[in-house]
Amino acid sequence: MQRKNGYKVLFYQKENGSCPAEEFLDKLPLKIRAKTAKWIEKLGEFGPNLPRPYTDVVKGKIRELRVIFSSLHCRFLYFFYGKNIVITHGFIKKTDKVPEEEINKAHNAMLDFEIRVKKGEISI
Known about the structure:
By secondary structure, the chain is of the alpha+beta class. The chain has one domain (8-118): 2-Layer Sandwich (YaeB-like fold). Helix content is 35%, strand content 29%. The longest helix has 19 residues, at 100-118. The termini are close together.
């Protein structure tokens, strides 16, 4: 989806065609999915200028989109690739820090995405 400022939001797709972010979203209740869609739209609109508490830098190029619904804390990890925002996956946050395992998933997805774009396997 293209936005006013030119940012395009993409969901990372694995080589086998699965999409971790969509799979996570599909498991969430409708009201949380609706709120998440609103914040993904805002992320596309404002890009790196969407402030805390909505987003934050996690580690290196990996950032998080924070969606809070009552006591449920959903996180979507993403990175920028040019004028694209690539959401790698989502999870329920249960601790103060983002688990290293989740950061590693996002980092590996970013590396895979970059390699596949350079090979021409993904067109953006």
